[in-house]
């Protein structure tokens, strides 16, 4: 009876060690896939940031061109010349 109890304790101990090793393997392999996912997302966000920067540059250039055009129209308009004569 004692022998059987000792075997059961030994089997339970072996089973616990196996479960522990499986958990560790699962955790470490989970970190690897998590790191890969994070790396992919970083690349995606960097690409999106680059596109956003290019879009902002275009908008800035268009705004500058629009302001210059408006300034040219204002400088050559009758409103400005008549306003200058009043001053």
TrEMBL record:
Signal peptide boundaries: none
Localization per record: Nucleus
Gene Ontology MF term list: transcription coregulator activity
A Pfam family of this chain: Med22
Biological processes per GO annotation: regulation of transcription by RNA polymerase II
Segments traversing the membrane: none
Annotated keywords: Nucleus, Transcription, Transcription regulation
GO cellular component: mediator complex
PANTHER family: MEDIATOR OF RNA POLYMERASE II TRANSCRIPTION SUBUNIT 22 (PTHR12434)
UniProt name for this protein: Uncharacterized protein
